[in-house]
Design a protein that fits this description.
Oligomer: heterodimer
Order of helices and strands of chain A: HHHHHHHHHHHHHHH
Shape of chain B: globular
Shape of chain A: globular
Radius of gyration of chain A: 20 Å
Structural class of chain A: mainly alpha
Number of helices of chain B: 9
Number of strands of chain B: 11
Number of domains of chain B: 2
Largest sheet of chain B: 6 strands, mixed
Order of helices and strands of chain B: EEEEHEEHEHHHEHEHEEHH
Largest sheet of chain A: none
Strand content of chain B: 15-25%
Number of helices of chain A: 15
CATH topology of the largest domain in chain B: Rossmann fold
Distance between the termini of chain B: 31 Å
Largest interface: A-B, 32 and 49 residues
Strand order of the largest sheet of chain B: 7-8-9-4-10-11
Number of strands of chain A: 0
Radius of gyration of chain B: 18 Å
Chain lengths: 326, 252
């Protein structure tokens, strides 16, 4: 066991490469339905990591990530359907608009902390949902927008999959860079002790807002990708149930770990498909899973594993200064 | 004069926590503030650092009025502080605790693209060394011993390169040996860095050992200020501070 752990730890880079290679050949070795499933996992992994920038890294519990995810999805959908924008511009606009809306929403939300912050984010997400649901003339109301004119090239699932893989890959790389940067470390300090950061000359609210905007932009990318993948958008993308999905993904994988939401996304989507195939009571099992996680595995799957393996890892790893947080 | 307060007042409901406090602190001075529990010492610190708002009066630092500035702006101008209750970043390593503050001092906190682990290493290690934590740099803040956490907190405060440092009960909860070591450390750091220091302390060995001057705070007012010898001799101070237990100070 010990040698396995050592091997895993020292070969992180190799493992990542193997995973990437595997992801690259997924459309060649899997049925279309499985490719779709992996595609969905990638999108939710990005959404989870985007949320986790706030949740796990800055310590801001948001109940409304789906609102900004939906802003991204609807931006691409509306620009393509109503204004016939070029595909690339419709996609690039998604994170920009989600970032702007995120900035507006965040400006209000960061004025409060803890439970009040969480409730504000929930309220704003519900406002976004209501606008999408009621504004028939612009958003299609509860009918959503269907048959979005996505370029035909992406109708083929494998093409769509590669688009998702590339964009999710770049986005995760950017998020990784952010959390490893001085800015990212500062966010972690804010998570640990927001009050103290003000006395080391950190403009707390401004950093929290920056985290909010960045998180929103990446959520927007995820939403836009899902719009391209499914070819349609619905108000439910902004619903709190969707936000719960994202929160559970972070919780399941573990939010003190960059890879947590990625693992969480894979496990959550597999579970939801498997269980909902067998029974109508998926929500019941979801509830049980959440209870179990919160009571017994508070740091999620990744956290649980690394906790159990930590004593072994500590002895062997060349303990750099950044080992402490992850 | 590095810090001056003019008729500083703060009350909470009916309780006047700080009343008519006029401080005049010279550059390089080592000033201690003593007084019974509830005398308003911590409130005074909170007023000076912008943590709570002032009811009336002014705080002037290096000739600038900082009365209404938020904590981060005051901190940026060069007032650092430590806290009575431990105030570190528990799940970050000792190294990261200090490094985050160094980033802030070097105005690198907004850098999104560089790798934090490769930046400001020397500066961070120099500070860890000066507070005696270099060999424990990879230990998480929460797992350090109490005395080391106090040192770490001082390291965080120093990393922002303050010219005025406020320490709120730096030796609280320490053994006599630890507190002796920390006192020496404080003296060393103040000398090396040319700091002005104001500290709140209950340990009279520390207070009389290192202070240039002592302010006695009682019910929000400064009732006496002077050199350690003068404070020791003052009967009113003895009465208020120690109740009827006469003679305790003369043993010091």
């Amino acid at each position: 066991m010990k040698s396995l752990v050592n091997a895993l730890n020292s070969n992180r880079f190799v493992l990542l490469l193997v995973l990437l290679l595997f992801l690259l050949i997924v459309p060649l070795i899997m049925k279309a339905s499985w490719v779709s499933l992996v595609n969905e996992m990638l999108i939710m992994a990005l959404a989870g990591c985007a949320l986790n920038l706030m949740l796990g890294y800055t310590g801001m519990v948001s109940f409304g990530p789906a609102g900004l995810y939906a802003v991204g999805a609807y931006t691409t959908a509306i620009l393509l359907t109503r204004y016939r924008f070029p595909f690339a511009i419709a996609m690039i606009s998604a994170p920009i608009l989600a970032g702007i809306i995120g900035g507006l929403v965040g400006w209000f939300c960061v004025r409060r902390s803890a439970v009040y912050f969480a409730l504000l984010t929930l309220a704003f997400a519900q406002i976004i949902w209501t606008i999408l649901f009621e504004w028939y003339g612009f958003t299609g109301g509860d009918n959503g927008i269907v048959s979005i004119p996505i370029p035909e090239f992406f109708f083929t699932i494998s093409h769509c999959y590669y688009l998702t893989l590339i964009i999710v890959g770049i986005s995760l790389l950017l998020l990784w860079t952010i959390v490893q940067s001085p800015f990212g470390k500062t966010l972690q300090a804010i998570r640990e002790n927001p009050g103290r950061t003000e006395f080391i000359a950190i403009h707390l609210k401004r950093y929290q807002l920056a985290a909010f905007v960045l998180s929103s932009a990446f959520l927007g990318i995820a939403g836009s990708l899902f719009c391209v993948f499914s070819g349609s958008v619905f108000p439910d993308y902004a619903h709190w149930v969707k936000s719960t999905d994202m929160l559970v993904i972070c919780l399941l994988g573990g939010f003190y770990n960059f890879g947590g939401p990625i693992v969480g996304s894979v496990v959550y989507i597999l579970l939801s498909k498997m269980i909902s195939k067998q029974t109508m009571f998926w929500m019941f099992f979801l509830g049980v899973i959440i209870v179990f996680l919160v009571l017994f595995m508070r740091n999620g799957i990744v956290g649980f594993l690394s906790e159990k393996l930590a004593p072994v890892l500590d002895k062997t790893s060349g303990s750099g200064p950044d080992e402490g947080t992850r | 004069m590095i810090l001056e307060t003019q008729k500083l007042v703060k009350s909470f409901g009916g309780l006047t926590a700080v009343y008519d406090v006029n401080l005049h602190i010279q550059e390089g001075e080592l000033v201690s503030i003593i007084g019974p529990n509830g005398a308003g010492k911590t409130t005074l610190f909170n007023l000076l650092t912008g943590h709570i708002s002032v009811d009336s009066g002014r705080v002037i630092f290096k000739g600038k009025d900082i009365t209404k500035l938020p904590p981060h702006a005051i901190s940026r101008m060069g007032i650092g502080r430590s806290f009575q209750r431990l105030n570190i970043f528990p799940r970050l390593s000792a190294f990261e605790n200090v490094q985050v503050a160094v980033f802030s001092a070097q105005r690198k906190s907004r850098n999104v693209f560089a790798r934090a682990s490769k930046l400001a290493r020397q500066e961070t290690e120099a500070i860890l060394k000066s507070v005696g934590l270099l060999d424990k740099k990879n230990i998480k803040g929460a797992l350090l011993a109490h005395g080391d956490q106090k040192r770490l907190e001082m390291g965080i405060a120093l990393a922002v390169e303050p010219s005025l440092l406020l320490l709120d009960e730096p030796t609280q909860g320490m053994s006599p040996r630890e507190s002796g070591e920390l006192t020496q450390l404080i003296q060393k750091l103040v000398g090396e860095r040319g700091l002005t220091l104001i500290f709140v302390e209950h340990d009279m060995n520390v207070v009389f050992g290192i202070s240039d001057s002592i302010k006695v705070l009682h019910q929000g007012k400064i009732i006496f200020e002077g050199k350690p010898d003068e404070v020791k001799k003052n009967e009113e101070v003895q009465r208020i501070y120690l109740g009827d237990e006469k003679g305790t100070w003369s043993s010091l």
